[in-house]
Every structure is written in structure tokens, then in C-alpha cells.
Amino acid sequence: MLRLCRCRRSEVRQHRPGWSVARLSFFVALVALGLWALMSCSSGENPAEQSFASREEGEITVEETRMKVGGGIVVQTRAVGPVDATNVLITIHGGPGLSLEAMRGFELLAGPDRRVVSYDQRGAGRSTMADDLDYSLEGHVADLEAVRKALGVESVQLVGQSWGGAIASAYAATHPDRVSALVLVGAVPLDRAEYLAGQDRFQARVAELQQLEIIAAQIPQIEHGSCVAAFHAVLPAYLDDPTSNLEVPLESCTAETTIATYEAFITDETVSEYGDNLAAFASPALLLAGEHDVYGRGWLTRQQELFVNALTDLVLISNAGHLVIAEQPDATLSAITRFLADQARS
């Protein structure tokens, strides 16, 4: 694991590639899936609104709740750890279109003094979608704020992975005083040009691996509204070692949400405003990524440039690509644990 010093703010090339319908379809189906899942997702019907379950898994209390967050949306949440814990850490899954099960690996951060909460984003997993089909960053930020309020805490720690990192960053820009510590893992930057540049790098990697016959020439199409098969087909492109036999169980990927959220992000003129507003965030931030992340070092560099007033710690995980928590779980969790412990002592 490599630890790098803070970089200076610099110019970023503002390149925006052209988008054909075919190319856009390729990306939304295949490359907007920047997360992994350690556990299988539930495939059952949505439980009744406001239903609640609490059980003991070993010595850890697990609570599952459905809560209304506004706009007619009902969000599924899962909390691990004591209700009266000093710290509440909310994890934000990627995709877009995956579900809270994708963050199970981060539940190991729970303990006597920390409760870890995850939730299905609007339109994903067991959460519902607003009547107006709003997939904007503004809507996602509003959902996260509603979850915080429902938890009854003044401030939270956030872990956002890949697409979830964009939501976490936008929330920190909007509610800087509500975030005591921010962890971004292979996060999408609040910069559409750099985001699209990363997608170009991913597409090139997929094409390269297809030439090597590591990825099949024909990518599975979306069936029954699920993009799980497409994710598995291009999984080698996410990894540091594309020939490894790493298993990434994934049973839930809502294609409609993936496509709509992706399109909302790349057409949203306010994304740069959220990025500019990150100057108001002055709490500690850990920017973490795999040393060989397929999306490139540009995402990480751009993240650091945007946090002009935050005390940022930049960490690269060796022998890892984009799915660091799957490829190098011990190193990833150790880096986050150390970062959070440092904040507790400060």
C-alpha cells in the first residue's frame, strides 16, 4: 500500500467526447457498474413500508428498516452495530443501480463505538422510485440527508465507493457541517469531463481484453431489467489481474436505474457547482483507490484538486484495480480504520 502526499491544484483538460447512441448504450450497460457485492441480494418482494427487523448475528446487532425520505420514495436501510454508538458511518453503494448488499465488506468497520448504516439508493434494490423519476444528484443528496435525520444524529462519517463517491462528495459540498469524516473509494469525481475520460479508459481496457479473449466479444444484453450478466462479463476489466478467478457474487443490478442515473449525471450542469462547493468542506477526507484502477489516476487527482480546504489523505492500494475491497480487503479496511482512528484522536 502506497501513501502519497497532497498535490497542488492544477489545470484539468476539459475534453468531452462525442456520444453516439450505440456508444452511450455500451457505457450505461457495461461501465456504470463500479462496485462489487460480497453477499447475495434479496430477490423477494418489497416488504411493507416502515417494516422493521432486528436480530443478532453473532455479537453484532443488525437492523433492517424501511423509511420514507420524501418525494414518495421509500428507502431500505441496514444498520450494523449498537444503536447508541458514538459514531455513525453511512456507506453509499456504487453502480448506479446496485444495492446496499454491495457494501457488506465495509460492515467490518462496525464496533462498540461505531454503527455502520447502508441503504438502497432510489430506484435500486428494495427502495422505490419517486413519481417524477428524478435521478439527479440533488435527489440523491436529499435522500442521504433524510436518512441522516432519521438516524437522529447531528453528523455522520461517510464511505462512498465509485458512483457512491459522487453522492458522498455532493452531500459534503451541500452539508459540510454534517460530515465529520469522508472516505472516497475509487470515487467518481464531481467533474463530468474527467468522469467521461475515465469511461474512455475503461472502454479501451475492455476492448484490449476482448482482443486477448479474456472478455467475450459479445457482451450479454439486459434481460428482465437486470444488468448483472453484463457486470460479470466485463468484471476482468475492473481487476488488477484480469486472469484471476476472483468471485464477485452479484444478484441485483437495476438496469433502468443504472441508465437513467448515468444519463442524469452526464447531462447535469450543476455537477461542476457541487465540485466548486467542495471548497466549503474542511473536515478530514481519505481518498483511496487501487494502484491500477482501470479508470485511471485522473479520477483520484481530480478529487484531490476539488478538496482545496480539507485535510486530505491520499492512499493507493497495491495489487488492486477498481474493486479494492474485493481484491485487497485487509489493506483497504486497515487504511480506513487507521484514518478514522486518527480523526478520533484529533
Commentary on this structure:
With 346 residues, the protein is an alpha/beta fold. It has one domain: 3-Layer(aba) Sandwich (Rossmann fold). The protein contains ten helices and ten strands. The protein has helices spanning 21-30, 137-151, 163-174, 192-211, 228-238, 255-267, 271-277, 297-306, 324-327, 329-345, and strands spanning 2-4, 52-57, 60-70, 73-80, 87-92, 114-119, 156-161, 179-185, 285-290, 312-317. It has a ten-stranded mixed beta sheet with strand order 1-10-9-8-7-5-6-4-3-2, with helices on both faces. The longest helix has 20 residues, at 192-211. 51% of the residues are buried. The model is unreliable at 1-55 (pLDDT under 50).
Quick summary:
It contains 10 helices and 10 strands.
Per-chain topology:
Elements: E1 2-4, H1 21-30, E2 52-57, E3 60-70, E4 73-80, E5 87-92, E6 114-119, H2 137-151, E7 156-161, H3 163-174, E8 179-185, H4 192-211, H5 228-238, H6 255-267, H7 271-277, E9 285-290, H8 297-306, E10 312-317, H9 324-327, H10 329-345
Parallel strand pairs: 5-6, 5-7, 7-8, 8-9, 9-10
Antiparallel strand pairs: 1-10, 2-3, 3-4, 4-6
Helix pairs in contact: 2-3, 3-7, 4-5
- Report how far apart the termini are: 24 Å
Helix segment tally:
10
Oligomer classification? single chain
Q: Strand arrangement, largest sheet? A: 1-10-9-8-7-5-6-4-3-2
Largest sheet composition: 10 strands, mixed
Identify the overall geometry: globular
Q: Do you know the CATH architecture?
A: 3-Layer(aba) Sandwich
The poorly predicted ranges are 1-55
Radius of gyration: 19 Å
Structural class determined from secondary elements: alpha/beta
Instruction: Please identify the top-level CATH class.
Output: Alpha Beta
Element order: H for helix, E for strand: EHEEEEEHEHEHHHHEHEHH
CATH topology: Rossmann fold
Question: How much β-strand is present in the residues?
Answer: 15-25%
Mean pLDDT: 84
Question: Can you tell me the CATH superfamily?
Answer: Alpha/Beta hydrolase fold, catalytic domain
